[in-house]
Automatic annotation (TrEMBL):
Name of the molecule in the record: Leucyl aminopeptidase family protein
PROSITE patterns: CYTOSOL_AP
GO biological process: proteolysis
TM helices/strands, residue ranges: none
Protein family according to the UniProt entry: Belongs to the peptidase M17 family.
GO molecular function: manganese ion binding; metalloaminopeptidase activity
Superkingdom to which the source organism belongs: Bacteria
Source organism (scientific name): Paenirhodobacter ferrireducens
Lineage, opening ranks: Bacteria, Pseudomonadati, Pseudomonadota, Alphaproteobacteria, Rhodobacterales
Listed CDD domains: Peptidase_M17
Gene3D superfamilies on file: Leucine Aminopeptidase, subunit E, domain 1, Zn peptidases
Cellular component terms per the entry's GO annotation: cytoplasm
Length: 455
């Protein structure tokens, strides 16, 4: 996922709008060839151009209509997938050059750990005026997120997630500390311990710290490496994608990789509660009541609503340090997918300026987000009576909102907080996004941070 060298002998690639004239730079023979092929600029069509000797001398790519392009993201990535291997340069001026160049890099990702994967061989020379190093850092962070989510649970448990954090820290001079097993109880993380104690793979809280000055950013990511549902066991059809239940952790690690690679002037703290929600005699039970790190008591009414439990303790720990901003990312609720589908993650915040910054950045960098309300009248739904909080309100309505309200109860010292209920998965291949794991929200956050934190 890198650009071709700037001095590469790159072939020209022209982008042609639907029904538009062919580029004036084409030779008469090339023009006649394209016309004979019936090339008309229809979205996604490709016409390879021969030179005088018959060798490949460039290509035309159908750019379609503006309306067509609004229906999807990264249309240039389709060219990256279709072009022959080698270096290519954009011969058409493109206002969205930065976003489309990034999409080209994203198209170069394939997960090949367990079987050979055919990686597109066409490489783009970074367009003039675009910061190649920045985009490569973003692409590398995205690749890390995808790799972690795509890895199956036998090779991505709490131990392996910790190893991935340590490897990332080693590349950027960050420090890592871990609290694991029964030490979680001794050091005040009872909810993380309760959720993870049934598995032979010890639960843990993984913390990465980086940066010595500037505002403090705390990133909290749900690291449920596999979710059986616990004693409220999921049916097989619902368990099939649960390797991605650590997608929040993978996404905050990808974002952390971007922040550190770009040397943003801030102090970064990443907290990942890493567990496997398993079934055994030690499993936590429906109707159990636990006292959280925050001191709030929580009644367990569904062991399959475990993500908010592990996040609660981690958020409380983040909140104790009063950072300038706390961001929480989690593959938390099916309700979010019912409301907005797989491509548009909802986010929740009480901070109007933060919400506006995130929404604006999401549109600017083609990383969709949609604000949902922290609806105060629903607070009573998460109050069971026997305890301060209910982890799984009955009725099934407003599930994403009530989960966000639950998490907000654990962030009371820090003024600025946002929660992202992501999916982390691409159900069908799309430009720049092969079927499988995908990052969501990280690029929008990265783009918003300078304004939000005054960097």
């Amino acid at each position: 996922m890198r650009f071709a060298p700037a001095d590469a002998a790159a072939l020209p690639l022209w982008l042609v709008d639907s029904g538009a004239d062919l580029p004036a730079e084409l030779s008469p023979a090339q023009r006649a060839f394209a016309q004979a092929q019936g090339f008309d600029g229809a979205a996604g069509t490709l016409c390879l151009l021969p030179g005088a000797s018959g060798a490949l001398d460039g290509a035309l790519f159908g750019w379609g209509s503006a309306a067509n392009r609004r229906r999807g993201r990264f249309p240039l990535a389709r060219a990256a997938a279709a072009l022959p291997a080698g270096a290519w340069r954009l011969a058409t001026e493109l206002p969205e050059a930065e976003t489309e160049a990034l999409g080209w890099l994203f198209e170069g990702y394939r997960f090949g750990r367990y079987a050979p994967a055919k990686v597109p061989g066409a490489r783009l020379v970074c367009p003039a005026g675009v910061d190649a190093a920045r985009l490569e850092a973003i692409a590398a962070g995205e690749a890390l997120t995808r790799d972690l989510i795509n890895t199956p649970p036998n090779d991505m448990g709490p131990d392996e997630l910790e190893a991935a954090v340590r490897a990332l820290a080693g590349r950027h001079g960050a420090t890592v500390s871990v609290i694991a097993g029964d030490d979680l109880l001794a050091q005040g993380y009872p909810l993380i311990h309760a959720v993870g104690r049934a598995s032979p793979r010890a639960p843990r809280l993984i913390e990465l710290s980086w940066g010595g000055e500037g505002p403090e950013l705390a990133l909290v990511g749900k690291g449920v490496c596999f979710d059986t549902g616990g004693l409220n066991l999921k049916p097989g059809s619902s368990m099939g994608l649960m390797k991605k239940d650590m997608g929040g952790a993978a996404t905050v690690l990808g974002l952390a990789a971007m922040i550190m690679a770009l040397a943003l002037p801030l102090r970064l703290r990443v907290l990942i509660p890493a567990v496997e929600n398993a079934v055994s005699g030690a499993a936590f039970r429906p109707q159990d009541v636990y006292t959280s790190r925050k001191g709030l008591t929580v009644e367990i009414n569904n062991t399959d609503a475990e993500g908010r439990l592990v996040l609660a303790d981690a958020l409380a720990a983040a909140d104790e340090a009063c950072p300038d901003l706390i961001l929480c990312m989690a593959t938390l609720t099916g309700a979010a997918r019912v409301a907005l589908g797989p491509e548009v993650p909802p986010f929740y915040t009480d901070d109007e300026a933060l919400a506006a910054a995130l929404a604006g950045a999401a549109g600017a960098v083609a990383d969709p987000l949609w604000r949902m309300p922290l609806w105060e009248p629903y607070e009573t739904l998460i109050e069971p009576g026997i305890a301060d909080l209910d982890n799984a309100p009955s009725g099934g309505m407003a599930g994403s909102i009530t989960a966000a309200l639950f998490l907000r109860r654990f962030v009371t010292e820090t003024g600025r907080f946002a929660h992202f209920d992501i999916y982390g998965w691409q159900p069908a291949a799309a430009p720049g996004r092969p079927k499988g794991a995908v990052g969501q929200g990280a690029r929008a956050i990265l783009a918003a941070l300078p304004g939000v934190l005054g960097l």
